[in-house]
Known about the structure:
- This protein is an alpha+beta fold and about 190 residues long.
- It has helices spanning about 10-25, 50-65, 100-115, 140-155; strands at about 1-10, 30-35, 40-50, 70-85, 85-95, 125-135, 160, 165-170, 180-185.
- α1 (about 10-25) runs antiparallel to α4 and α2 crosses α3.
- The mean pLDDT is about 95.
Amino acid sequence: MRAFIAIEIPENIRSILAKLQDQLKASGADVKWVERQNIHLTLKFLGDIDDVLREKIGAALGAAAADNQPFRAVIGLCGAFPNVDYPRVIWVGISEGDTQTKKIARDLEDRLSKLGLAKDERAFASHITIGRVRSPSKRKNLTHALADQAQNLAKLNLVFNISKLTLFKSTLSPKGPVYAAQKEENLKTS
């Protein structure tokens, strides 16, 4: 099964992010937007795993959750990778809670590397992908729209609590990926 570990985003926040996507769509840029129900914060993409490895990953997920406490997160950033002038991935970022998210990601990387999964080459960035640019068509319009929306997003104060980690199965279909939670682990509360 194709899988990843993520932090789920509450529906009320996903709804606001979908409105942000609509505002960015007005740029006319050629972007594949993430479906509202699929908006999440990926901690680790796992690729294809078998049932034996899934069980071991589940145990590592539980151990990482037990070593981290729930925390508050604020979405207050908007940008693009590699940069806003040449966007490939459109994202919103965590302005508060970033330190905790990075700690959990490092914890997972360490635990999963002991299972034989390769560590990511790039440093972890606390972000939520909301779109992927397919071509440079109307790129400048998108760049301007991103700058405008970055200012608006900072004013919205999108606050939510992060209290669990989830292992997802990702099934690719002609209509896009379908995600299904396979295992959830609550962060330590004491």
